[in-house]
Give the backbone structure.
Amino acid sequence: MATSVKKTSSNGISSPPASPVSGNRIVTLDEFIIRSEKDFDFATGELTGLLRDIGVAAKIINREVNKAGLVNIIGVADSGENQSGDMQQKLDVYANDKLIECLKNSGECCAIASEENDDIIHIPPIGTKKNHYVVMFDPLDGSSNIDVNVSVGTIFAIYRRKSDPSAPATKEDFLQAGVKQVAAGYVLYGTSTILVYTTGRGVNGFTLDPSIGEFCLSHRNMRIPENGATYSVNQGYYSKFDLEMRRYIDNCSDQNYGLRYIGSMVSDIHRILIQGGIFLYPSTRKYPKGKLRLLYECNPLSMIVEQAGGKAMNTQLKRILDVVPNELHQRCTIAIGSPAMVDELKAFIERYSALPL
Ligand code: AHG
Ligand code: MN
Ligand code: MN
């Protein structure tokens, strides 16, 4: 029988249940997912299956990312630009195809939206099975870093569909506020490969052990430090930022915060999750609404960071997870990370945005 373990605090963050595993023995991602399923009421195994599919795709993408440079898979793809106007790399296309393929094979979701596709992709049901979930992803985040051997990632989000499960999924199933995510996570193809995910009961990380080909629990119940000593922003755009953002950055420098900016959001967020800090992508002249995508990047990473005790807002001071999207490839501004640092930025925006320019 499914047991219910749900305690939600005033900030909307659920406290994690007692860890489903104990001792020092190796716990694989698959085992952890299956054991955690018991925490959900009415669990049908669909969500478990989806997370497993993503884990398989991540291993395949990891294998290819690791070979980049040896085989002809680096560089710009023949397809040119994607919907967002970014150059598509060969590995963007490869990672996108693998994720779609893995999710199609098991037929556990009814539709997919990807940063690399203009529109939603329907997944035909297997037999008479009704599928209740849709999946969104950024198949390869930071892909312009591939050619120079710098870490890249995959980001994903899973929502329960709103439409009738006996009919095809609709765009409205995807245009839900981030607070409706039932699971979110990322894979970082770094010095080691790590998969970090949440189903709304805390955050856990699994490092890929290449010798056995399994993601193994390595970071249990991750908590973001209340404060940090670094800020992360593309400071090259400083003169294009609004006054309040420039004042905040000046203050970071005055306080001797270090600047760390990798240029792949997954890598920057992973560092912040472990060491504390703040990541900023405000509006610039080129991207007045911000550059990062709400559905594929900001929402899943905001869920992870909030679940770990952090905060995420846009530069209008609205919680990212409360923004209701109106288009699939919507961009947004973001400030995300240690709660004390996000609060400090909020105070700067409140103080300086009222000043005449
Ligand atoms: P993607 O490769 O999926 O298009 O994402 C790149 C994003 C993000 O990962 C990173 O933080 C940001 O773009 C970097 O942008 P700038 O080069 O403008 O700083
Ligand atoms: Mn990205
Ligand atoms: Mn991408």
About this structure: The pocket of AHG (ligand 1) is lined by residues 86, 115, 138, 141-144, 234, 263-265, 291 (CB under 6 Å). The helical segments are 29-37, 46-67, 90-106, 243-254, 265-275, 294-307, 339-352. Residues 1-22 have pLDDT under 50 and may be disordered.
